[in-house]
Specification:
Layout lengths: L2 H14 L5 H29 L1 H5 L5 H19 L5 H25 L2 H24 L8 H20 L7 H29 L4 H30 L5
Helix pairs in contact: 2-5, 2-9, 4-5, 5-9, 6-8, 6-9, 7-8, 8-9
Length: 239
């Protein structure tokens, strides 16, 4: 890929006020999402192959530090997206993807590699189908937002409560199915929102590019969470 042409086109649009098409804007958003996933996979694989991850997670409370860092980056990017520069928005997005890669390197230790590959393939297939639906459907998916948010809140509460009530583990597969359904719904919903961001920020070239990064982050989170619930449901752990 010629990245110089990629950035030159952005500078040209900003300088001469030429607006890219919705199709190009959507493709650009999914490109950022793909690059984020590539960073996560690269960091995770590197941590596993070098064995660094074993020493990293041996540090007391390191996993808590990672969790706090992930949440902090996402909340800061979400809250400050209108005030950040475009380069800074990109840096934060890739910083989050890199931190997530450190976390994901542990999955190479816990799960069979073939199982990880198959679940990743299934995630890509399901995500792709729902993203296409969200892009092409004429149905307004915004009415799903309360249902999806309710499902997300349920997943968070159930996940926390199950830490203290082990018997809820018997409902783990049902919990995973709900999680899969919720993030499949978010995939279609967030894909359709790309069109809304494009229409709303069409008069502001810089904000349009930042909205693209924000949409990429939302889709990245949809993909990652869908992968995790599918892995929990279908994945095979190492003996």
């Amino acid at each position: 890929m010629d990245h110089s042409n990629f950035y030159d086109s952005e500078r040209y649009q900003e300088q001469y006020g030429q607006r890219e098409s919705l199709g190009t804007y959507t493709a650009r958003t999914f490109l950022w999402m793909f690059l984020g996933l590539l960073v996560t996979f690269g960091v995770a694989l590197g941590g596993y192959l070098t064995g660094v991850i074993v020493y990293v997670f041996a540090i007391p409370y390191f996993h808590i530090v990672l969790l706090v860092a992930e949440v902090a980056v996402v909340f800061f990017l979400s809250a400050r997206i209108q005030h950040l520069s475009v380069p800074m928005a990109r840096v934060l997005f890739f910083l989050y993807a890199g931190i997530n890669g450190i976390v994901f390197s542990a999955y190479f230790i816990i799960f069979d590699v073939l199982s990880l590959i198959l679940v990743f393939g299934a995630t890509s297939l399901y995500f792709g189908v729902l993203a296409l639906y969200g892009h092409f459907t004429k149905t307004d998916l915004s009415r799903l937002r309360p249902i999806l948010l309710g499902g997300l809140i349920f997943l968070l509460i159930f996940g926390i409560v199950s830490l203290f009530l082990p018997f809820l583990g018997a409902l783990d597969r049902v919990y995973c199915l709900i999680g899969i359904a919720v993030f499949l719904g978010f995939t279609a919903y967030d894909t359709q929102k790309i069109r809304a961001y494009y229409a709303f920020y069409s008069g502001d070239a810089a904000m349009l590019r930042k909205a693209s990064i924000f949409s990429a982050l939302q889709l990245y989170l949809d993909f990652i969470n869908l992968f995790l619930y599918l892995l929990r449901f279908l994945g095979r752990r190492k003996d």
